[in-house]
Amino acid sequence: MNELHVEGLTKSYGAGEPVLRGLELTVPAGTLAAVLGPSGCGKTTMLRVVAGFLRADAGTVRLGDRLLNGPGVHVPPERRRIGIVPQEGALFPHLSVARNVAFGLTGADRGERRRTTDEMLELVGLTGYGDRMPHELSGGQQQRVALARALAPRPRLVLLDEPFNALDSALRAGVRADVRSALRATGATAVLVTHDQQEALSTADLVAVVRDGRVAQCATPQDLYRHPADPWIAGFVGDAVLLPGTVDVDSGDTARTALGAVPLAAPPGGPRAGTVLLRPEQLRLTGEDSVGAVSGTVTDVSYYGHDAMVTVTVDGHDTPIGIRVAGPIRVRPGEQTGVRVEGEAGFHS
């Protein structure tokens, strides 16, 4: 099996502070995992250690039952059976598309190389492009060729290092979907390193959020978004409404906030005062006198086409609150409105 296990990974550069601080990560076989985090958190360093380009100071990397990094062990990159898809494709400019894809097929005869190349180009939707040169392709096509090249030797693991950064937003979503489909078609285990939250949540089966050289939380995209481990993660993976709250002593399953009494998804067993977490789509604009609503003032409206973010200030909370609204926008800055909570909130003490 091609399950990836990273345990206790530590890495420093020179005498500086460690970039990786005992990082732990498990990626099940056949899973596409996104490693998500802000710049400088250690995600790219982790990828380079797994690929074999860097030696770890401590910790182990296993791929299936094979130890790649550990005490006294450092398998060279070329012997790890790991495919790499770098930023901007990094194709060989003097080789045709077909020769780029076949580059890693050493030891195969000409017929096998041709069959594998054709199969990989069909897989990434580029049948008939084999004779073209890289400069004749669009950026998205170049990234798909880079993926075909990485998959051609049948690697045990594919590492994708922020491969969509150079693409414009209109092209990025389509190429991401093509890459995900190709990886699933081959059953490859893959790790996507990114700082783009939308990319991680929409593309991966599993998302690991890295903070200060450690995995702060690893979960499915839905669980990560709905049940973040702490307020920082909540704000990092999406828009979050964070409110001071006090758990109702009598019920134990609601919290008193500036938006009124809010039901909690998991009543806390510890301290009663903490932070209540809501998502902007859980808030509704209503009439000021609507039952269960609190009164507020609209301070801003940002329109995005498919929806809008309406910012409202309410009494008892200094920070403006973002409310995601679908459909026509019927409020303007300066107007009074009601705000009501729908659904359950998270609670962090």
Automatic annotation (TrEMBL):
Enzyme class: translocase
PANTHER family attached to this UniProt entry: PUTRESCINE TRANSPORT ATP-BINDING PROTEIN POTG (PTHR42781:SF5), SPERMIDINE/PUTRESCINE IMPORT ATP-BINDING PROTEIN POTA (PTHR42781)
UniProt GO MF annotations: ABC-type ferric iron transporter activity; ABC-type quaternary ammonium compound transporting activity; ATP binding; ATP hydrolysis activity
This enzyme's EC code(s): 7.6.2.9
Keywords annotated in UniProt: ATP-binding, Cell inner membrane, Cell membrane, Ion transport, Iron, Iron transport, Membrane, Nucleotide-binding, Translocase, Transport
GO CC terms, sorted: ATP-binding cassette (ABC) transporter complex
All residue ranges annotated as the ABC transporter domain in the record: 4-237
InterPro entries: AAA+_ATPase (IPR003593), ABC_SmlMolc_Importer (IPR050093), ABC_transporter-like_ATP-bd (IPR003439), ABC_transporter-like_CS (IPR017871), ABC_transpr_FbpC (IPR015853), Mo/tungstate-bd_C_term_dom (IPR008995), P-loop_NTPase (IPR027417), Transp-assoc_OB_typ2 (IPR013611)
Entry protein name: ABC-type quaternary amine transporter
